[in-house]
Amino acid sequence: MLQKLTPAELDLDFQLERVWQKFSPAHVHLCQLISQQNLETSLSQLVANYIKVELNTAQATKLPKLTLDLELEAQAIEQALMQLTKQSDTQALQTLQAQLVAQWFIYDAFLDKFTALLNKQTKVLAIRQSNSLVKGQHLFLQKLTSKLNQALGHEISFAPSLYSKLEQVQAQVQQALNANHKFSLPEIIQAQQVATYDYCVPENFNRSALFGIYTPAKQEQEASYTPGLLASNNTTIAIGANQLLQNPKLASELLQTLAQGNFTLQQAANSKTQDLAPEVTIACQANLVIMFNGENEEALLTLLATNIDKYLVQAVYKSSNNRFDLFTATRTPDREIFLQAYEQQVNSVVESAKAENEELELPEHIYKESAKPEKGYDRSKLFSHVNADQELWHEISYTQLNSLQKLNHNQSHLSSQEGAQDISQESSQESTQEAKINSISAKVVPAHIKIEKELTTKLEQALSQALPNSLYIVTKMLSLMSLLKEGENSIESATARSLIVQLLRYNETSNRIFWAVDKIAYYLRLSQGNYHKLQTILAQEANLRSTEYESLLNFVLDGYQTIYTNEMKVGMVNGLAFLDTNEIGKEDFGTAIRISCLAHNEAGQTLDVDSEIELAGGLARRANIISTTYIKSLFTDNIDFSASILTEQLYDPTDGDSASVASFMALASALSQLPVKQGIALTGSMDQFGNIQAVGGINQKIEAFYDICQARGLDRSQGVVIPAVNINNLCLRADIVTSIAQGDFHLFAADHVSQVFELLTDVPFATDKDDKTTLNDENDKYQSSYLDLTNAQTSLISAILQNLQADKSSRGSWLARLFA
Fold this sequence. Notes:
By secondary structure, the protein is α/β, with parallel strands linked by helices. It is built from 29 helices and 27 strands. The longest helix is centred in the middle third of the chain and has 32 residues. It starts with a strand and ends with a helix.
């Protein structure tokens, strides 16, 4: 079913602010407590109170095997949050805070894999972690190592024990050098008398830090050796993947040494003195922790696979995402409430026109039963077909039944008043609006909007249902911000909510939060957690478009690239594409493209011009093949035609199937000679049955076409059609949502190409009068019509047959044309 999306479904800021209004004072107080934590305190409490260490009895110089366990109950955090707001429990609060912190540092069986590393079952542990939390991950492992040593009875930090080990190694190696004999592996192990765990993050990744420094004898100076970290037993060395990849030769040598369990003095000597170093073998029972991220993951995996047995390596991966129920829960009731309010507004316009002896002829198919206005409107069709002034979207949030609430949209007020806000009930005041229906303008004073009790109940239930999950998302954001904040900067709840919206837009999904930690850290550094500073930064970013995008936009606006936005054309459709920017610090963007088609009644093929000259790849070619085969499948008899499809003014190679629906529309228009509205752009993939499938870059594509239309002047007929399955990916700019709310721009969601055809041509896809079509069969090739079929004079099916037959008749035989 084709849907025209309401602004109530699209305004993310509005939705988040409204659910915040549902927070009780206890909820807000809980958020305050969580935001007051800091990295050092949080990790100390987590390690001290919730990680259990079990050790076997230590034997002289040999460390016992250990077991680590996280003593946090596997309960749903959402339930724990709601329980805490009902009763005060200090211990439960501490446990909850520990759970929130643990999510960022303990994941994917982390403790089991770290235990295997310390127990020498593996040699390397690769940890995937965001750059902004690497410092915290190191701090967590240092505190964990200290707790292990305390369990052994050593009340010392890692540094003294590490230095003590290295001093003992140095003494033993010096003894071997003086005696001029080989130094065996067992002797080195026995030489280290300090049985402790150590965790070290070296400042530099170089040979001397790892293997030490060997200095040969000179005149009266004896040969000497200063040990490196690899000579220390039971020491975990932590190095970043980027450091390893910058010196792959040394990284390979490090990994091979860990696998072999020893190294020689030659490796500690420089290139000039290697030949002078004696054959002294030094034991290596150190471990390696590698911090990596998505950018260097592939190169790191190649390095590891080349230099060390895969069974000696374990990896910890983090999937940082959570479901977000708010928009999924409220979308349907919000839409229903908006449509009912819109219906009442239209009724006000109609009644006002009657009072002035004017008749407004509304389309018959917007009523529940055709030609029976007394039965009421089909609200969805009414909103889709009747373009009235809207501006209702701020007036559709309710906290009490049968009462219209206007939310306070002053975010700074919410951020300064940390507590649940009881929204004062305001009756809907009558306002003067200029209504435009079927080109008739009138000054209208709408009647008081009364929302059905059933709808307000649905919305209340939806908000209550989404509250636990929303509270969890907010508290998780506050917890993360407390770990990332610098100094004593305070954290405002409004900042947290604003960052949640930015995450949704950054990841282009409204039903799942993908925690882009480094992005959050970036905004926190610039804004220092202050809401007003953050809004200034976001506003500047919105205005800082890519120069490449600006060039393409100006190319269209200056007339060098032809994109029509307010006409009707045969065989031409505005498609949308997604492009990767080549500029540092600039986001990817969308662009409008014009797809054209010429068709002839001659047996042949559909020629993809772009593919023929290798400007388009295989996916684009497949899209045009699907368009052709689908159209042919609509007819019981074989229809012969040839066509050429082209992306006009395309000069760079592209690929993808997101223009499948646009290609179909261009071909269908060319075959039927039915003109297409140029004010509506399309994006979407399609299958062989005409079903519309998901595509990427939805928001950027919409923004690209909106910017063109807005620069030329919005005329209330323009918009974009997207796949219905992509609704959850909508996170639009505020100015676009405002234009949609004012009725100046429209957004449609479709799940079948038949709906798109009817929207763009105002002609039915098929009618009951059509024969020679497979659409009368029970199949998935056609869905319910967007238009009224009662008085339809033509359809796509009949137009194609008539046009092809007329074209064939006009040409006649070659002999007739010869003597004409």
